[in-house]
Amino acid sequence: MTQQTPVISCKNVWKLFGHDPKTYLATMPAGRGYEEIRSDGYIAGVKDVSIEVHRGEMLVIMGLSGSGKSTLVRCFSRLHDITGGTITVEGQDVMSLSEKELIELRRSKMGMVFQSFGLLPHRTVLENVAFPLEMRGQDRHQRRERAMEVIKLVGLEGREDYFPRELSGGQQQRVGIARSLAIEPDIWFLDEPFGALDPLIRREMQDEFLRLQGMLSKTIVFITHDFDEALRLADRIAIMKDGAVQQCDTPDQIVLHPATEYVRKFTEDIDKSRVVHASVLAKPDIVGTGEPVDAAMTVHKLAQLLVQDTREAIPVTREGKLIGAFRRTDALEILVGSN
Amino acid sequence: MVAVTTDAGTERTFTRPRTALLLVGAAILLMILQYSGLLPAVLHRLPEAWIPPFAAWLDAAFTFVKDDLGLLAFTRFLTGGLEWVLDVTANLFFGQRRWPFLGPIPWTAVAAVAAVVGYYLGGWRMALLGGGVFVWTALIGQWKIAMQTASVLVVAAPLAFIIGLTLGIAAWKYAWVDRVIKPVLSVLQTLPFFTYLLPAVIFFKVGPTAGAVATTIYAIPPMVLMTTLGLQKVPEEVVEAGHMSGCSRWQLLRHVYLPSARTEILVGVNQVIMLSLAMVVLTAFIGMPGLGAKLLAMMGSFKLGRSFEIGVTIVLIAVMLDRMSKAWAIKQPEHFERGTPWWKRHILLLVGLAAFVFFCILGQFVEVATDIGRKQNFSKGSEIDDLMKGFLALDWVNAITSSIRYFLNVKVLIPFRNFLLSIPTPALILFVSAFALWLGGRRQALLAALFFSLVALSGWWDRSVITLYSVISAVALAMLFGLPLGIIAARSEKWSTRVLLACDTAQTFPSFIYLIPAIMLFGITDVAVIFSILIFAMVPLTRYTIEGLRTVPLEILEAADMSGATRMQKLWKVQLPLALPTMAVGFNQAIMFAFFMVIIAAFIGTQDLGQELQRTLAGTDMGKNFVLGICVSLMALTFDLTILKWANDQKRALGLGE
C-alpha cells in the first residue's frame, strides 16, 4: 500500500434518483437526512460521500442491500452520472469526459466484475473474454492470444469453446473475472462478485481472488454485503448505510474502534482476535522484552504464546525492524472477547 | 345523445356500478318508448341528412396525398423495385419467364433442403415434417400454386422483419416514437384486412406487389412489439458489462442488445411468418394467384374435395413453418471440441448444399423430379368430394345439420339480430358505455360512447350492428362449448397438454381454413358464418381457460382441499375466481378473432360491413373502404380497451402481477 496521489478520489458526491434531482439538490437545505429526502420524493443512492482509493490498495465497500454501495461504484465508472460533487479517476474529472474519452478510459484502464456475471449468452468463453479487446479493435489473432492467457490465469483452460450456460456458477464468474482482466486494467471494480455463489464455492473463489491479487496488485474497489468477506480481503473497509459512508478504515480499527452504533453492531459477532494484528496493538513508547513477534500476526495466531507467556509487554517487528511492543493483557482481552 | 351528456354530469356523485345501472335504465326507457311507438324517429336512427360525408372527405384527402403530394408516384417507384424482386423469386420458385431464367427449382431439391434444415433445427422428426410437407404438396399436384404463394411470402416476411425490427429499436430507444407507434399498432391490429388490401392495390398495382405490401404491413405490428419487449428485458448487468468493455453505442446495440434479445426477436419472427402466411392466403381477394386463390375458387364452386386438399396443404405448411421457427427461437448454441475440422462443424450446411445440387442436376434429366404433371399427381379431389357429399346427404347426417341450422336460424340468430336492430341507436350506445363503465372505468366508458357515436355518424349503423350481432352470437356460442372444454381439460395434466397443443396448432392455421368445415356442414348460409367464427373464437377461449386454471398456485389449492372443499366448491370458489383475469384475456382475443373472421366470412355472403368492404375492393372507393374499416376497428377497440383494463385491474387486485 503506497500513499501517493489517489487513483480515485471523490468529494461530496451525491447521486439522487427522482424526477429532477439536479434542481432538487441545488435547492435542498443542508443536512437533510435520508428519510427527509425520501419524503420529498427522491432516493439518495449516494449521499455526500468523500472517499479516496490509493494505488495498489484494495478498498472494500460493505453495506446491506440498498445501502448505495453498488450505486457508488457505478458512479466511479460513470455507469451512473452523479448529481453533485466531483469524482476524479487518474486525475481526470469523469463527469467532464466526452463519450469518446469515457469509452477510451474504460477500454484502457477499467475492468469490472458483476454479481450475476453479465456474460453474453451467445458467445463462447473465449469470445466473452475477448469481447473488450474486440471492442477496441484489436485483431483476431492478438485478442485470441491475450484471451487465452487470462483464461489460463483463472484456471478455465480447456473450456474456452464452451457457452456460458454450459458452465457452473463459479466457472461463469471466472469468465467474468477473466473478461475484466483482458485489457490489463489499472483499476478493478468487483460488484459483489461472489454474492451469487454458494458458500463453499465462495470461499474457494476468495482464495483464488487473493492469489490473483497477489500476482497482479491492482487498485481494487470490491463490493460486498458480507462483513466476513470484507475483513478477509480488505486493506480498508468503507461501511455504508442509506447512501452515506459510516466509517472508512482498516479492518483492525473498525473492529477495535467502531465509529457509530451501526458499525458496532456489525462487529459484535466478529471474532476480533482473527482480525486484529500485532502491528495495531504495538505502541512505540512501550518497551518489550524477549523474543519479538511479527507485525502481520493476528492475535488469534498468537493465542498459544499469549496464554503461556508471562511477559508484561511483547515486542513487535515488521520486516526485521522493531516497531514497538504491546501489553500482553490488551491482546488477551481481545482474545477472550471482553474489551 | 342528450341522455349521455346529462348522465356524464351526474357521474361524480355516483359509484361506478350505480352509474352503469343508470345508463342501462336510460337505455331501457328509450327502448320502451321505441316499442310503444312514442320515440321520435330522430332518436331511433340518425337521419341520413345528418350524416357527414366522411367517405367524400377521406377521398378528397386521399386524392390530395396521392396525386398532389405525389405519394402515388413515389409508391409506384417503389413498386418497380419490389416487382423486380418478386419476379426473381417467381422465376426461381415456379419458373416464371423472368430474369434470371434459372427456375423453377425442382421440388425434390426444395424438399431435401427443407429436410436438412428441419434436421438442424429439431432432429429427425422435424426433418420428416420439413421434407414431408413439400413432398405432399408436390405429389398432391399443388406445387405450382404453393410456390406462387411462397414466392410472395419469402419477400414479404423478411421485409416485415426488417421494418418491424427497425421500428421496434426506434420505439425502444426514443420514448416519443413509442408514444406515436403504440396507438397506430393497436388500430392496425384491429383493422379488417380488406382495409389493407385496397390501398395496397391502389398504390402498388394489382397482383403480387400489392399482395406483398399488404402482407408486409399486416405482419409488422407483432415484430415491433416483440423487439421492444426483448430489448427491454436485456439484464442491466449485461448492458453494464458492455459499457465497461468500452462499447460504443453502435457496438452496444449490435453486440450486446440484439444478441441478448435473440429469443424474443425470434418469437417475433415466428409471428411475422405466421401472419404473413395467413395474409398471403387472403390476398386471393385481390386476385393474387396461389393457394388462397385456388381455395377461394374451389369453395366458391362448392368442390369440397379439392378445398379439403388445399386446406390440408395450407395447414401443413403453417404447422411446418411454426414448428421450425419456434425450434429456431429456442435453439441454443452447442460448442464443438477443440480441433474439430471445418467440414465437421458445418456438416449439415455441406449436406444441404450437396442435396440441393444433386437434385437440381437430377431434375435436368428426370422430368418427374422437377415437375409433377397434371395426370401424374395423387390428388383424390373428386373422390373425396363424392365421399363427403355422400356423407352429408345421408339421411341422419342431413337431419342433424338441417335441424341445427333450422333451430339456430329461426329460434336464435334471426330473433337476436332483429332484436339488436330494433334497439334505438342512442340506447345501444348507452348499453355499450354502461358495459365499459362497469368493467373498465370512466375513461373506457367515454371512449366507448365516442367510438360507437362515430360508428353511428359513419352512416353504416345497421351493417355495423349486424357485424356486432355475428360477433356476439358466435362468441357466446363459442363460450358455451369452449369454457366447459377448457374446465374439463384442466382437470388432468395429460389432457391439459393435449388440448393446449391442439389449440396452439389450431391457432397457427390461416383463418381462411376455418371456412372449409363450416361450408361443408352448413353450406352457404348464415349458420356457416357463425360456425366458422365459432370454431375460430373457441381456440383462445379454451386455451386461456386451461392456462388460467392451471396456473392457480398449488398452495392455494392445497389450502382449499384442507378446508374441506368439494371438487365443485374448489372450482367455483377458488379456481375460477383466480383464473378469471386470464380467461378474460382469452375472451378478449376471442372477440378480436371474431371481428377478424366475420369480415372474411363476407365471402359466404353476409349483410354486414364485411360485405360492403369486399365490394369496395372491386373499385377504387378508398374513402368508403376506410370508413367501413374504421367502423370495425372502433367496435373492436372498444372491447379490447375495456376487457384488457378489467383483466389488468383484476390481476393487480389479486396480486397476480402486472
Please supply descriptive tags for the structure shown above.
heterodimer; A: 339 residues; alpha/beta; six-stranded mixed beta sheet; 14 helices; globular; B: 658 residues; mainly alpha; 30 helices; 80% helix
What's this, in brief?
Chain A is an alpha/beta fold. Chain A contains 14 helices and 13 strands.
What does this structure look like?
The complex is a heterodimer of chains A (339) and B (658). Chain A has 339 residues and is of the alpha/beta class. Chain A has 14 helices and 13 strands. In chain A, the strands form 3 sheets. Chain A has a 6-stranded mixed β-sheet, with helices on both faces. A 4-stranded antiparallel β-sheet of chain A has the order 2-1-4-5. In chain A, strands 11-12-13 form a 3-stranded mixed β-sheet. In chain A, strand 12 (313-318) and strand 13 form a beta hairpin. In chain A, helix 5 (125-135) packs across helix 6, helix 5 (125-135) packs parallel to helix 7 and helix 6 packs across helix 7 (169-181). The two termini of chain A are 29 Å apart. By secondary structure, chain B is mainly alpha-helical. Chain B is built from 30 helices and no strands. In chain B, helix 22 (442-458) runs antiparallel to helix 30. Chain B is globular and about 85 Å long. The model of chain B is unreliable at 1-11 (pLDDT under 50). The A-B interface holds A 74, 77, 79, 99, 103-104, 106-107, 110-112, 114-124, 131-132, 134-136, 158, 160-163, 165-166, 176, 179-180, 183, 189 and B 235, 237-238, 240-241, 243-248, 251, 255-256, 259-260, 262, 332-338.
Structure summary, number of beta strands of chain B: 0
State the helicity of chain A in percent bands. Answer: 25-40%
Relative helix content of chain B: over 70%
Order of helices and strands of chain B: HHHHHHHHHHHHHHHHHHHHHHHHHHHHHH
Secondary structural class of chain B: mainly alpha
The two chains with the largest interface, and their residue counts, are: A-B, 39 and 24 residues
Structural class per helix/strand content of chain A? alpha/beta
Q: What shape does the CA trace of chain A take?
A: globular
Q: How much strand of chain B?
A: under 5%
